[in-house]
Write a structure and sequence with these properties.
By secondary structure, this protein is an all-alpha fold. It has three helices and no strands. Helix 1 crosses helix 2.
């Protein structure tokens, strides 16, 4: 059962990641070019924020 949950979660991530480039590729391209302008520290902060948010959500759901 836990392996099934992992694959379902991965499928959801791929679905959500693919929505914006599919629906609005121009917006996605502009957003991506702005992300490339961020400094390493800024990217690390957003990565840490995403990691902590995911862990808190996981902890809350389990």
């Amino acid at each position: 059962m836990p392996a099934d949950a992992f694959w379902l979660a991965l499928a959801l991530v791929l679905i959500f990641e693919g929505l914006l480039p599919f629906i609005a590729p121009g917006v996605w391209r502009r957003m991506f070019s702005e992300i490339l302008k961020l400094q390493d520290g800024q990217l690390r902060f957003f990565g840490l924020l995403s990691l902590v948010s995911g862990l808190l959500l996981w902890w809350w759901l389990i």
